[in-house]
Amino acid sequence: MRSRLDNNEAARAEGGVISGHTRTAADPADSVRLAKRVRDLPPSGIRAFFEAGSGKDVVSLGVGEPAFPMPEPVRKAVCESLARGETAYTSNAGMPELRGEIASYLRRGFGLDYEPGSELLVTVGSSEALDLALRSLLEPGDEVVVPSPGYVAYAPLIELAGGVAVEASGSAADGFKLTEAALGAAIGPRTRAILLNYPSNPTGAIMRAEDLMPIARLVQRHGLAVLSDEVYAELTYEGRHVSIASLPGMKERTVVVSGFSKAFAMTGWRIGYACGPRTLIAAMLKVHQYTAMCAPTTGQVAALASLRLGLEAKEAMREELARRRTFFVEGLRRIGLPCRMPEGAFYAFPSIAGTGLTSAEFARRLMEEGGVAAVPGSVFGEGGEGHIRCSYAASPEQLAEALRRMEQFLSRLREERKAETKQTERRPRGAAERAASGSAGGRPLVI
């Protein structure tokens, strides 16, 4: 599949996005013609479900945001900085002391060695880091391979940078990991880079060194760049996260992207960073200084304090998320939704294939009839169909209530399917219909 943005007319219509040039003169705003690359951009499937459920009696498992407070020492450091009036611009690349602390943190935790003055850039969240890297790398029509299922922002960011997103579909049988075979099939003459995201949003899959080695060899053979989104690196539950940049021959062709939103529960502070070859980081800085100038100063202060004062709280959060993961996944299995135990991040990706509904139908009905917001797997690409994404970063009380509501919803689905089956059995059938009854009946509800 060459692009995830090709067939999104319905999504654009639902999101209220302008989809063409033809306009009436009734509304003055209609005289503004939007760029095609923006007109063709679908609204976020995650935000659509989040907004649809807001203000209603809905337990939201849709948005990836840790339900944990900022540690008190970090809060105090931010307040003291504000009291000192530290609200001016920082260096375009970020506060030197923050860059130095990030470099030390990456060296200690993941064996990555970056020079903070030339190989590290602080950005407005990790999404800006990805945007800068793509805009610095791609020529019009260049292709970027993205794993499917994968985070919803990747394909739009690639398209906005003039590139084409090419999906390499994973499967539950492979643990939703990118395989050498899938990547090899997706690489073509226009391929410029691959984009990795492990631990994965939405599946929770991780890639160990033995999984990454064949990917690295293939990347080197084809002379590709790698964008490695490692924002969930700290949320690896078994063993230690391995970055592809730590493998032989990969640091010089890899941009490591991460941030403070997930592992440090700082989603609203919008602080991310990118590490990579100094030539590429310099190019990204050039774009960054004309768009964002610098990351928010107070957010940088919070990030610095988190690295110096908040590491203990981060570890406690990871341990609590591991407990919630076990509770929620075991609960999903108990109510009849098969689910792999995620090895990282804070998402469960249960299969809903046995319900006979598409992931979009299931998610819509679960919210409207069951009062639980989850994200349909289809918004994460073709590889996500037949699943829904549920965040277990919600509070334990919310998770328990969500499971209770989901169990009731599934019970009603079973009764609905039984009634449909009985009605079908009572309906008179012709000879041709009887002959085809083995394949024409409704799919059983295996949940």
UniProtKB/TrEMBL annotation:
Residues 56-405 form the Aminotransferase class I/classII large domain. GO terms for molecular function: pyridoxal phosphate binding; transaminase activity. The keyword Transferase applies. Residues 433-447 have a biased composition (Low complexity). Keywords: Aminotransferase, Pyridoxal phosphate, Transferase. Residues 1-12, 415-432 have a biased composition (Basic and acidic residues). CDD domains: AAT_like. Its cofactor is pyridoxal 5'-phosphate. Its EC number is 2.6.1.-. GO terms for biological process: amino acid metabolic process. It is an enzyme of class 2 (transferase). Residues 1-29, 415-447 are annotated as: Disordered. Gene3D superfamilies: Aspartate Aminotransferase, domain 1, Type I PLP-dependent aspartate aminotransferase-like (Major domain). The keyword Transmembrane helix does not apply. InterPro entries: Aminotransferase_I/II_large, AspAT/PAT-like, NHTrfase_class1_PyrdxlP-BS, PyrdxlP-dep_Trfase, PyrdxlP-dep_Trfase_major, PyrdxlP-dep_Trfase_small. PANTHER family: ASPARTATE AMINOTRANSFERASE, ASPARTATE AMINOTRANSFERASE-RELATED. Belongs to the class-I pyridoxal-phosphate-dependent aminotransferase family. This is Aminotransferase.
